[in-house]
Automatic annotation (TrEMBL), chains A, B:
Its EC number is 2.3.1.35, 2.3.1.1. CDD domains: OAT. It comes from the Bacteria. This is Arginine biosynthesis bifunctional protein ArgJ. It holds the Pfam family ArgJ. It comes from Zemynaea arenosa. Pathway: Amino-acid biosynthesis; L-arginine biosynthesis; N(2)-acetyl-L-ornithine from L-glutamate: step 1/4; Amino-acid biosynthesis; L-arginine biosynthesis; L-ornithine and N-acetyl-L-glutamate from L-glutamate and N(2)-acetyl-L-ornithine (cyclic): step 1/1. The gene is argJ. The record marks 119-120 as: Involved in the stabilization of negative charge on the oxyanion by the formation of the oxyanion hole. It is found in: Cytoplasm.
Length: 408, 408
């Protein structure tokens, strides 16, 4: 039950020169579904990533971070679903390394040139033999136009694959970019979400790509939430394959801003796809907090609204019980907030004026907006010029059903 | 569907000398239910309270805080359900004052000697005329043994009244204490919950009572959560009627500790009754975090577990998907937490050892505990000697149903 989520069509997903994708059915949790993905990069590629800040960060996340930090030239990424390899201690690290070693041997590179990723249930041993056994099949079907299959291969409780492509012209160079993402629950990324991969065919110097991935993540995956649960496995990876004609060597280069904006827009689309397919989601909500002293307090208030179970259930019910939004603003932890200056809008409807009910507000106007499947909540704080936007979904019976049944 | 919640019996609730209670049916939201409560105190009484820290604190909370802060000698409390009088601006303050004025006139005291309270829907005008019209009926049935009716009169989505009594002997003096509480959703008190009232018949000096109410609240109402939504109306009030023989004039007096412990125990019982009757609750969960550096970090981790929708739905399903607890610990915001030293227990079952799955842990042991209706989650941080405990409940379909239907 995705909210106005356009299903990607295989034919609309553009191959990106310099990257090939292959999948396999390893039977990690269930037989007969794609659960292993290999992405192989050209020699010219640079790679940068941001990862979960969860202290229980998964074994593969620890290894991916270390390999990127060591400056290894990344040749391939490997992803498995069905098991998160988190909360698995030293044995988990050993099994993630074993996956990298097996793939490195197949591809003729060093294990440090592989980035491993896992998603699925936490606190259970990774069935590494199944993954290793499936690698040759994945390598055998490596293809440039496998993005749709790749999006399917990283799904867990997702109801649909998430992928999108863009072609942009930057400084006279055509740049093609394609990305995939997954995730429908345990979504409140704190660096990035589990999982997002975006490749494009420009050549980008490592320091530039490191900055770009942070910018794109902050304005996309780091601004979404479904249930406030920051995963142990969140990862967002940018891959500049270097196979195209655009080359960017510094942040000052005029083309950088255009590339940054295009990558950020595509990242945002991928991140919003996760919310639209949020577990049990029936509403897509944009929460914008304006006129704050700084971005941090705007984000605090936006997340407080986005995480309130009472706000989320009211939206599920299409019930304009909007006092719940005020309550969530009030406990957001902005201690010197003067609520008597605060204004609240639901799309075009002015609900609360100077901290109280707008005398002109009519219940039927609130009701009209609440019935929509896409709704913007806008809060004006009258404290400054900062703004932040967060995207989220409602809390429905199906969220409870999905998460009460996840392992069965 | 309360979790092992002993229904209070009217006959077990002891009158407290120096306080009388009366109720009325004002028809605030629906006809034919008790929705107004008046509590009248003896001249000898002292009163202290703690209130919500929500910036959108309700109009009656603002007035009650002001009257207590001004040192007014409190003669009566008045509570209405069906409307929170929050998010109502200046007009809300005027209507709360109008209620106080009407009751003061009936009782022959000043409006500043009244503490008003409201609970119910936010952002809607208080039907003050209905409340004022109902006051004479409430005054007419003022009685010392009306505690059961009082507990019923403050219910909203509660499925049962919450009340308890104790008689303790302190320094040769018999002290009788009775308390009532309400609340089932929008429960993550940050000072106290909406609503708790506890009276006892000792005579207690104001500075002592001010300290006592903070201590009791911190160890009871400030350690519970249902949905993380801090209400606009939380209030917890201690009333020392002064009608008994025990008199406490300073914190150093030897009897103070005994009184503090008795009041705190009764407060905790009342607070836990709220969790046991949490909206849709099927499980009562005690979350204890031990071996922390300080209480604050223990509380952070305990609340992170208690608020995780994924943890709460797993408990609803009796599914030992306990990696979700590790994830919630990991994102609690304790940045220097060394997860490789962490241990996790579910009742007597050792689940995670040194941050990974305990090799001796068996799924069937976890399953056995998860099937219980009362479960203790114990986390050991191996960082210090601090401890904190938080009480919460699971997240079920009924929570969604209740809050999607609340206003209809």
């Amino acid at each position: 039950m995705a909210v106005n989520s356009p299903l990607p069509v295989a034919a609309d997903l553009k191959p990106v020169a310099g990257i090939e994708l292959g999948y396999a059915e390893a039977g990690i949790k269930k037989p007969g579904r794609k659960d292993v993905l290999v992405m192989k990069l050209a020699d010219t590629a640079t790679v940068a990533g941001v990862f979960t800040k969860n202290r229980f960060c998964a074994a593969p996340v620890q290894i991916s971070k270390a390999n990127l930090a060591a400056g290894a030239k990344i040749r391939a990424l490997v992803v498995n679903t069905g098991n998160a390899n988190a909360g698995t201690g030293d044995e988990g690290l050993a099994r993630a390394r074993q996956t990298c070693e097996a793939l490195a041997q197949e591809l003729g590179c060093a294990p440090e040139q592989i980035l491993p990723f896992s998603t699925g249930v936490i606190l259970e041993p990774l069935p590494v033999q199944k993954i290793v056994a499936a690698l040759p099949a994945a390598i055998q079907n490596l293809k440039a136009d496998n993005w749709f299959n790749a999006a399917e291969a990283i799904m867990t409780t997702d109801t649909q694959p998430k992928a999108a492509s863009r072609t942009v012209s930057i400084g006279g160079h055509s740049v093609t970019m394609t990305g995939i993402s997954k995730g429908a629950g345990m979504i409140k990324p704190n660096m990035a979400t589990m999982l997002g991969y975006l490749a494009f065919d420009a050549k980008v110097a490592q320091p530039v790509l490191d900055e770009l991935v942070r910018h794109a993540a902050d304005h996309s995956f780091n601004s979404i939430t479904i249930d406030g649960d920051t995963s142990t496995n969140d990862s967002f990876i940018l891959m500049a394959t270097g196979a195209g004609t655009l080359e960017i060597t510094s942040l000052e280069q005029p083309e950088y801003a255009a590339l940054r904006d295009a990558v950020t827009e595509l990242s945002r689309t991928l991140a919003q796809m996760i919310i639209r397919d949020g577990e049990g989601a029936t509403k897509f909500m944009t929460i914008t907090v304006e006129e704050g002293k700084d971005v941090e307090e705007c984000r605090k208030i936006a997340y407080s609204i986005a995480h309130s179970p009472l706000v989320k259930t009211a939206f599920f019910a299409s019930d304009p019980n909007l006092g719940r939004i005020l309550a969530a603003i009030g406990y957001a932890g902005v201690d010197d907030l003067d609520v008597t200056k605060l204004n609240l809008y639901l799309d075009d409807v002015w609900v609360a004026k100077n901290g109280g009910r707008n005398p002109d507000y009519k219940e039927e106007d609130g009701q009209r907006v609440m019935k929509q499947s896409e709704i913007t909540i806008r809060v004006k704080l009258a404290r400054g010029a900062a703004t932040a936007t967060v995207w989220t979904c409602d809390l429905s019976h199906d969220y409870v059903s999905i998460n009460a049944d996840y392992r069965s």
